[in-house]
Structure formats: C-alpha cells, structure tokens
Amino acid sequence: MYGLSAGHGIKHFGQGALLVMIPSIRATLGLGDVAIGGMSSAQSISSGLANIPAGILTDMFRKKIAWILFASMLMVGTGYIIIGVSPVYWILLIGVTIVGFGTSLWHAPAFGTLAARYPERRGFAMAAHLTGAQIGNTTSPLIIGFLLAGSIGSWIVFSGLDWRWLAVIISIPMFLTGLTVIARFKTAGAESKGDVSLGEYFGSAKKMFTNTGVLGMALLGAMRGAVHNSFQVFLVIYMREELDYSDTFVGVHVALITMAGIVSTPIMGNLSDRIGRRPVISFAMTIMTVLVFLFLQFDSGLPMTILIAVLGLFFFSVMPIINAAAMDMIDKGSEGSGTALMFTGGSVVGSLTPIAAGFINQENGFHGVIIFAGIIAALGAALSLLLPMKPKA
Q1: Which backbone phi and psi does 156 adopt, to 5 degrees?
Q2: Residue-wise pLDDT tens for the chain (393 aa)?
Q3: What's the predicted TM-score (pTM) here?
Q4: Closest Cα partner for 102 from 36, 177, 29, 161?
C-alpha cells in the first residue's frame, strides 16, 4: 500500500508540474484560451484511451503488475522530454498526450491491486493511495513555481529555469521511479491465483458493463473530474494574468488545493468504510458545490486563498470514495477493469469540459468558468443521492 502510494505521489509530481508551467508555455508559444483547453483535452483523451489496455492487462496478467507500472513511468518521462524540446504547439500536444497516457496507465494496476488485496478496508486503502498523489500534487507546484521564478516573494535566489529545461529535468525522477518499481515491487499482484484467459476476462467484464451502479459511479467520478479540469486550469491563468501573481505565488495556491486533502482523504476513506459510501460522497459533493460558487464573491486576496485551502479538503478527497463505491459492486477479479472504467468515464467528460471552459473564459472571464464548474458540481451532488450503492454491511 505504502510503496504504491509513494510511486503515485511521484507520478503526480510530474503530472502537477505541467499545470504550473502552463502560463510560461502560453507566453512562449502565444497560445489562446482554447489552445490551453486543448492541451488539457489532449491529456484527458489519451488518459481515457490508456485505461482500456491498462484494465485488460491488469486483470489478465496480475503477476506482471510491476511491468505495467514501469511502462507508466517510462511514458511520463518520455512525454516530458518531448514537451521540453517541442518547437511548436502540435509537438507539444504529442508530449502532453504521452504524459496523459502514461499517468493513466498507473491507475488500473495500482488501484486494482489495492482493491483486491484490502477488500475490508477498500476505502482507506484507496484513500491512502490518493494521499500519495496529493503529496505529489502539493509539493510539485511549490517546487516548480519556485524553479520557474527563482524567487520567494521579494527574495531573488537565481534567475529561474526556462520551462523547457525544467520539463527535461522532471523526466529524470520519472525514469528512476520506473526502475525502482521493477526492482522493488515484486509482490505486486501476489494476491492473484494466476493469469486468466481472454474468455474469462470478457465474461467478468460483461457483468460490470451492465451494472447500473458501477456505470453511475463512473458518471459521478467523471463529473467530479470535470469540475476539477474546468476550474483549476483557468484558476491558474486567472491568478497569473488577472491578479498578476508570480509563478511562486501561483504555485503556493495550487498546492493549497491539495494540501488540506493530505489530512482529509484518509479520514474520509476510513469514515466511508465505517458508515457507508453515500453519506461521505454526498456531503463532499454538496460542500464542493457551495465552495466553488463562493469564488464569485471571494475572487482575490486572502479570502480567495482561504477558500482555495478549504476547497482542498474535498476537491480530490472524494474521488477514492467514489472508486471504492464502484469496487464494492463488481465481481472479484475485475478490479483492474473496474478502475479503468472509472477513469475512462472521467477522461471522456474531462476531454470536453476544458475546451468548453476555454470558450467560456474567452467570452465571460473566470467568473463564467466558476458558474460552469459550479453547475456541474451541483448536478453531481444531486446524482450522488440517487445512484444505487452497496449498503454498509
């Protein structure tokens, strides 16, 4: 559990770095709002595509989990090298697409292994895994923001790194983590009795794809992801261009979105194991809705900073609970495909919403994006009250 969580944290360090680099990339390549949304969409589409082979390979070759995780980190590192050397937008998109594919390739083998190995503490195990991601998401913007700016407040340390060099540097820990996985994660998939045939796999998968509860959880997870993708990307642009925050200060605010979740995620996961998934999911989605709409009033200064930190208690923390609710309703042996389905749903919806948010930001500014994200969050909160979920035994 802790080894997979640590690897997840490093993966998300690389994944989160791109977000803080967006204003610098935008300035260098002269990109508009729709092009920025296109980057996020390309990443989401490739993530969705990656889930399909990841789920199949995870469930069919449970003893080879370490090699799938290795391939995930290898692709993230390779994608960042392409981003770093890209002379034009379309080559940049290729790098972003490879990063998206690589980051998503991690989820099915990791979450699937945890769901199978810890069936009685599934909520906590998945929350612990996401806590690793939140540590990566928290440290990444702080470090990347500082390296881009070369300063902390008025204290200038050095002239700052160009985003291209930084992208290449980020690839190094990705490659090293992949090698560590191969060397150390030899017990991953040990709970499995062995490989399954293609026929056995599709027999189990068919039941999952006709399960309305699982499909509903995939939709709910997608809506949560849509709020994230729509809101966070243009929050970064808003802080950098409208509020004139430095790269370092932008990085601090992005870190706040996940920092509080480091504490709240395992608590919420443990609570969902004890009292059931629905109360925790519905409460988190409802509070998220209220907090997003509050940005219409508190859109600068200390109040906005505090609001971002409070939103961080719920923004990512509800995701592993939604995943655990889906895992509760699928057959044993289909955990990898179940995880893949959850992340595919998020990627499909997430591939469309950033472009829509880009048009909205272009025409109506960041307040328009807030309303767009808030409406999606409200629909998700309502859906969480209606979806079938396995009751607490």
Answers
A1: -90, 120
A2: 666 767 777 887 888 788 888 888 988 988 888 888 888 778 877 877 787 777 777 777 767 788 888 899 999 999 999 999 998 999 999 999 999 898 888 777 776 666 666 666 666 776 766 677 778 877 888 888 888 888 776 677 777 889 999 999 999 999 998 888 888 776 655 555 555 555 655 666 666 667 788 888 888 988 888 888 788 888 988 998 899 988 888 888 888 887 877 888 888 888 988 888 999 999 999 999 999 999 999 999 999 999 999 998 888 788 888 888 888 887 665 666 666 667 666 666 666 787 888 889 989 999 999 999 999 999 999 999 998 887 655
A3: 0.68
A4: 177
Contacts of 294 (CB under 8 A, 6+ apart): 307
Number of helices (H), then strands (E), belonging to the chain: the values are: 15, 2
Q: Taking every pair of C-alpha atoms in the chain, what is the biggest distance, in angstroms?
A: 63
Domains of the chain, each with CATH number or no CATH: 2-386 (1.20.1250.20)
**Nearest-10 Cα torsion for 313, 317, 322, 325:** -100
Q: Where are the beta strands (DSSP E) in the chain?
A: 151-152, 155-156
Coil, strand or helix: which one is 152?
Answer: strand
Provide the token pair at 30. Answer: 């002269």
Q: If you ran DSSP here, which 8-state letter would residue 330 be given?
A: S
